Each structure stands twice: as structure tokens, then as C-alpha cells.
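Progress against Task 2.4 (sequence-to-structure conversion) is shown through the following example record, which the project officer requested during the mid-term review.
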Amino acid sequence: MNSMREQFLANSRVVADALADTRVADAWDEPSALPGHTVGSLAAHLAFAIEVQQFLDYGVPDAPAVYEGAADYYARAIELLTDEVNRGIHERSDADAALGSAQVAGQAADRLAALPPVLEAEPSDRLIHLFGGTIALDDFLWTRIVEQVVHLDDLARSLTLDPGSTPLYVNPPDAEALVISIGAEIGRRRFGGPAMIRALFRDPSTSPSPLPVI
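C-alpha cells generated for the chain above:
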């Protein structure tokens, strides 16, 4: 199995463990740090970032890859992120959250347990459908790691844990660097190189607007 697939599995284990934390269950119906979401609906949305089989089941697209990597997907998908799409994502998360914390965590663990042989069997050039286009499987997994890292942070901030308490999660060493590199590239495409250089190395107050993660 290649390094991207191994990285995705490693980060998915962090997600599954975080979702099973009793502190998440205790705050399930409370507002979260993600506007419009409860902790439960945020957790359910995060759990979906482990889902791969559903996308594989759509079948192999005939067209060549439309999204040329994870950064290209995020930079271009922003244009497709309509209010209707946002509502659909939110409604799915609310419906999943209504199942309760134990079932959401259990489903995430089940998805993860089934994934290693599935990913092992897929060829390196496997394409899948994703939100208005197609993308290589390994690049798709890169987008899932972005979702996981960003929404794990949302979930941790939502719980407002006391200083010194056990962290909700600890990302594998390479995951945050991977996500930051994607975020920097998305910013370069959206706002230009000079804006990102200034935001990163000169004046953080000039940072471009937040990059949406869906």
C-alpha cells in the first residue's frame, strides 16, 4: 500500500478514536465551533470523512481526471458550493447525528475496519467521481485528510477542554504539514502568490479570508 493510503488510514484512526471519546457524547447536542452545527452534527460530518467505499461504488468514470490534485479540487469546487449543496451537507449531518453518538462512532469504526483490504486492491490510477468531476483516488484521500484535520480542530475547539486535560486527538506527524501545504496552494491559486507570502511571512493580519472546507 502506498504512503498516501497509509497516511489516510492513520489519520482515520485518529478520527475514529476522537469520535468515541465520551466528551464528544456528553456535548452532543451543544452548539459547535462550526456555525450552524451542533457537536453531534459536526461529529457526524467528520465521521463521513472516513467514507471511501461509497465513492468507489459509484463506478469508474470514463472521463479523465478533472481535478488535478487536492488543491485543484478545493480551488475549483468553491465555485460549485451553492447554498443548496451546503443545505444538503448540513441535512445529511443532522440526520446522521440523530442516530446518536454511539452509532456515529460505531459506524466510523466499522468503515475504517473494512478499508485496508479495499485500498490495497485498488490500482494506482483508479479514478472516482467527486462533487462535479473526477479525481484520482490518492488525491481524493488527500482531500479527506484535509477534511479530517480541519474538522478535528473544529471538534476540539467546540469542547473547550480545560488546560491540562487529555487532548481530544493528536494528528500523525505528517498530517498537519500535508494539510498546510494544500491550504497554502489553494490560497496561492485564489489570492495570488504575493498575498500568501505576505500572510505567511510578514503580517498575519493581512491573511486572506478563510478557505472553505466542505
